[in-house]
Design a protein that fits this description.
CATH superfamily: P-loop containing nucleotide triphosphate hydrolases
Radius of gyration: 18 Å
Number of strands: 9
Bound molecules: adenosine-5'-triphosphate, magnesium ion
Strand order of the largest sheet: 5-6-7-3-8-9
CATH topology: Rossmann fold
Number of domains: 1
Mean pLDDT: 92
């Protein structure tokens, strides 16, 4: 489903070049649940946003479902993102003065369909994350775990083939984080492709496969048995 071929990303800030991704080649199949791990600054968020068609690489090729999003004209890139990718940001980015339902409806504003249909889709998405009955709460009236689930519902309301999550449990205690991970695991069982950034080994254990980054490069998979010395 996703193929990265020798992807590089160099940021330039204040005349300094930072190589955030170096020659990353990676394949993620449809229906996989992949955890991205690595130290702070190793390039995880960069890789996730490159995968999500929101951050053009400075080298190499990204192909999603046979489409090269970065070769599309910029407006088509936005359409592609809208159709293909749901993103859960680390800080959730819920709009504080909109209710849970209205937050979930945000990605639908640019699509076709009546307001009534959109409300129904948002209701359904909130039901999928077990938040029925809390549609009219503001984010501040929800717990951290509930806010994470609103962010998940918003990412999923368009039924995107690809779900990306940047530290979805980063701000949560382990019990609440566990609920969010159970939710992701359930989506995965239902066929959802998921790539999740996490620092946490326990969280990563919910994934099928762990990809480790180090200084912008993918580390070779760990051997199954520890090597002596
Ligand atoms: N917009 C930017 N401009 C310049 N440098 C950037 C930019 N975004 C990220 N970087 C740099 O690129 C490198 C990789 O950053 P990235 O955010 O991908 O790391 P990360 O693995 O997600 O780290 P963390 O675990 O702290 O979130 C870092 O050295 C960072 O300082
Ligand atoms: Mg990050």
């Amino acid at each position: 489903m996703i193929e990265l071929e020798a992807v590089c990303k160099t940021y330039r800030a204040d005349g300094v070049a930072v190589q955030a991704l170096r020659d990353v080649s990676l394949r993620i199949d449809e229906g996989e649940f992949v955890a991205l791990m690595g130290a702070s600054g190793s390039g995880k968020s960069t890789l996730l946003t490159v995968l999500g068609a929101m951050n053009p690489p400075t080298g190499g090729q990204v192909t999603i479902d046979g489409i090269e999003p970065y070769s599309l004209p910029v407006e088509r890139q936005a359409d592609f993102r809208h159709e293909y990718v749901g993103f859960i940001f680390q800080q959730y980015h819920l709009v504080p003065y909109l209710t849970a339902l209205e937050n979930v409806m945000l990605p639908l504003t640019i699509g076709s369909g009546s307001r009534r249909e959109k409300r129904q889709l948002a209701h359904d998405a909130l039901a999928r994350v077990q938040l029925s009955g809390k549609e009219n709460r503001l984010p501040a009236q929800l717990s951290g775990g509930e806010q994470a689930r609103v962010a998940a519902a918003r990412a999923l309301v368009n039924r995107p083939p690809l779900l990306l999550a940047d530290e979805p449990t980063g701000n949560l205690d382990s019990a609440t984080g566990g609920l969010v991970l159970d939710l992701l695991a359930g989506l995965h069982r239902a066929g959802q492709t998921i790539v999740m950034v996490t620092h946490d080994r326990q969280a990563a254990s919910y994934a099928q496969r762990i990809v480790r980054l180090r200084d912008g490069s993918v580390e070779p998979p760990e051997p199954s048995a520890p090597t002596p010395g």
